[in-house]
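Troubleshooting: if your tokenizer reports a length mismatch, compare your output against this known-good record of 97 residues.
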Amino acid sequence: MRIRSFLLLLLALPVIYGVLIAVAELPPYGMPDNPVHNQVSERYISDALDDTGVLNMVTAIVLDYRAYDTMFETIVLFTATLAVVITLKTRKGEGER
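Known-good structure output:
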């Protein structure tokens, strides 16, 4: 029992260290000068109409910039729904047909 606890602690320490390092690298919350996010949003805002020809910016982002992502999300949701329906479907008894 003590060996198992020691092994779990030995496994948990690097995971906790990795999480702490990742959190330390995050920019401060609400910092408006974060260049990573500003460059992407500026490009979408300024070039959406020219790149896609769509007047609605949300539609341009969802259907043109992120079309494959949206398609695969739809496939995943359809597959999950189908799996739930198949799982919950009642099975007929052996004598009934």
